[in-house]
């Protein structure tokens, strides 16, 4: 419709998962759908339209778009892989429920307020859409009886919008009918004027980039993000960044609602089983058929279009594309979007198999089948940690992996900050992105200390200097005598004597060096140990 308008609302599917009984609450969904249909219908009446043509078309047909979001997150909670047979069974039942109850609500609204202007019963039930709608015969007959008696309030009822920003607001990494793209990530959000005023009240100094100011301060230091200069600062537990376009932003950790539910409610052993079964697969891990099978189920019920992206490999040829689109067409899919791996490199970066092989040779990614080890017992605050460092050669000069075993723990606030700092070091090496993702997928169920040791090994095996690693950990607020403090000191003992550091002696102003694992001044002898 050339002069149609969007009037969209989406059902947050994870909100209908009953945690106590581990079932989808269809009764709650049946209660909420009529409220949503009435809400969307009311919007058509209270809207101020910018053009008379839009108002005329909108009120004549009263078209609304009821959709869903969080489908992939629901799959995590239900323990069902996106696109698997049982997942499709649940999806079919959900959409049959949404379709019936949205129609029933529109019939009751027509009884209360009147049908849409152009409704014609005989014409409507003979449309291709209505005749193909896969509702049970008795259900369809009941709806037809209601429409014949009262009419229908809305010409169109269902669609599937992308819900990008809406999904983020609901903490969903699965917009619309998409799978979970990533379980958790860091999002840079604009700092509000109120928060900026609070930072100024705390005497932080920084330029106002929106007014054209740009300079370094004691609090905000210049760094490069690709080819762009930014000013960065860590204040308290928050990372801030100022760029010339957006002004001040801050890092916020976003975790998918469904994934957080899994971490809170699923036993670790069961979680590992489901992970091995591929239940927690992301968009890029799914097959093309799994993507298409979900679209095939949903499209049968939709009045309007569906926003859905299918991830395809970089090796896809023109003939592959042709076969793929014909396959979608044969399934009754009206339209779709594809994302080919390796395109839009500013948004997503992946490595080809050849590139992986080249990096494995260049950076010694593969862990050797045999290695030399040295054990250490770390004692702190009546706790014991057993640490093993692995070395590629018998001279044991530079470790390539760190292992630990203990029944003790560190405070989460300490270990999380350390882990975040090590991630930051890793992310500076863009080629490490796929390895970081793989490491974090494998270690999600482990303690922060174990994850820190895994990240240390990743950095060491990829020729990141021990100096850079330990300097990063030094910036954390780590208590003296804690495991992280002592482990960092242990790693420093493998830095060659005489290695220059980025620290300046507070006593004489000379550049300090590493000596026997300690940072010291070669001129006046000041030691930081």
Mind explaining what this structure looks like?
This protein folds into four domains: 8-169, no CATH class; 184-255, no CATH class; 372-494, no CATH class; 496-529, no CATH class. The strands form six sheets. The protein has a five-stranded antiparallel beta sheet with strand order 5-9-8-7-6. It has 529 residues and is an alpha+beta fold. α1 crosses α4 (85-113) and α4 (85-113) packs parallel to α7. The longest helix has 29 residues, at 85-113. The protein has helices spanning 26-46, 52-61, 71-78, 85-113, 121-125, 128-132, 137-150, 164-169, 193-201, 257-265, 268-276, 288-299, 318-330, 353-363, 412-427, 433-442, 448-461, 466-474, 483-492; strands spanning 8-12, 17-18, 23-24, 65-69, 184-190, 221-225, 228-235, 238-243, 247-255, 309-312, 337-340, 372-380, 383-391, 401-405, 500-504, 511-515, 518-520. Helix content is 42%, strand content 18%.
Report a brief summary of the structure.
The protein has 19 helices and 17 strands.
Profile the largest sheet. 5 strands, antiparallel
Task: Please give the count of helices.
Answer: 19
The Rg value, from CA coordinates, equals 29 Å
- Class based on secondary structure composition and strand pairing: alpha+beta
Spans where pLDDT lies below 50 across 5 or more residues: 344-365
Q: Separation of termini?
A: 74 Å
């Amino acid at each position: 419709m050339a002069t149609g308008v969007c009037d969209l609302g989406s059902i947050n599917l994870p909100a209908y998962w009953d945690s106590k009984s581990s079932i989808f609450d269809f009764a709650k969904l049946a209660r909420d759908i009529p409220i949503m249909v009435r809400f969307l219908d009311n919007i058509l009446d209270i809207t101020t339209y910018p053009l008379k043509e839009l108002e005329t078309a909108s009120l004549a047909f009263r078209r609304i778009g009821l959709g869903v979001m969080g489908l992939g997150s629901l799959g995590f909670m239900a323990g069902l892989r996106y696109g698997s047979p049982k997942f499709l069974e649940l999806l079919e039942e959900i959409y049959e429920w949404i379709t019936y109850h949205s129609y029933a609500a529109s019939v009751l609204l027509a009884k209360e307020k009147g049908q849409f202007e152009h409704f014609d019963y005989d014409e409507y039930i003979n449309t291709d859409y209505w005749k193909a709608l896969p509702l049970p015969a008795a259900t369809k007959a009941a709806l037809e009886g209601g429409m014949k008696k009262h009419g229908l309030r809305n010409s169109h009822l269902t669609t599937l919008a992308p819900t990008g920003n809406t999904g983020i607001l609901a903490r969903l990494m699965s917009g619309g009918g998409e799978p979970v793209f990533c379980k958790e990530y860091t999002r840079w959000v604009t700092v509000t004027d109120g928060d900026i005023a609070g930072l100024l009240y705390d005497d932080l100094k920084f330029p106002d980039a929106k007014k054209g100011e740009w300079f370094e301060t004691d609090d905000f230091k210049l760094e490069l993000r690709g080819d762009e200069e930014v000013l960065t600062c860590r204040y308290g537990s928050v990372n801030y960044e100022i760029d010339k376009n957006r002004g001040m932003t801050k890092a916020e950790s976003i975790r998918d609602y469904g994934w957080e539910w899994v971490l809170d409610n699923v036993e670790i052993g069961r979680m590992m089983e489901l992970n091995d079964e591929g239940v927690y697969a992301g968009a890029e891990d799914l097959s093309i058929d799994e993507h298409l099978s979900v679209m095939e189920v949903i499209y049968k019920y939709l009045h309007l279009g569906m926003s859905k992206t299918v991830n395809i490999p970089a090796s896809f040829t023109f003939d592959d594309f042709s076969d793929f689109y014909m396959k979608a067409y044969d399934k009754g899919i009206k339209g779709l979007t594809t994302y080919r791996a390796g395109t839009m490199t500013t948004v997503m970066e992946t490595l080809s198999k050849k590139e992986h092989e080249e990096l494995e040779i260049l950076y010694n990614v593969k862990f050797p089948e045999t290695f030399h080890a040295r054990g250490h017992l770390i004692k702190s605050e009546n706790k014991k940690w057993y640490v093993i460092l692995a070395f590629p050669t018998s001279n044991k000069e530079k470790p390539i992996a760190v292992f630990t075993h203990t029944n003790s723990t560190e405070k989460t606030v300490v270990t999380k900050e350390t882990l975040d700092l090590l991630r930051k070091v890793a992310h500076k090496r863009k080629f490490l992105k796929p390895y970081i993702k793989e490491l974090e997928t494998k270690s999600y169920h482990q303690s922060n200390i174990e994850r820190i040791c895994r990240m240390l090994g990743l950095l060491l095996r990829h020729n990141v200097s021990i100096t850079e690693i330990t300097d990063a950990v030094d910036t954390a607020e780590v208590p003296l005598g804690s495991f992280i403090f002592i482990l960092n000191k242990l790693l420093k003992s493998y830095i060659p004597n005489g290695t220059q550091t980025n620290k300046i002696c507070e006593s004489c102003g000379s550049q300090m060096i590493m000596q026997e694992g300690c940072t010291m001044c070669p001129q006046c002898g000041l030691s930081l140990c």
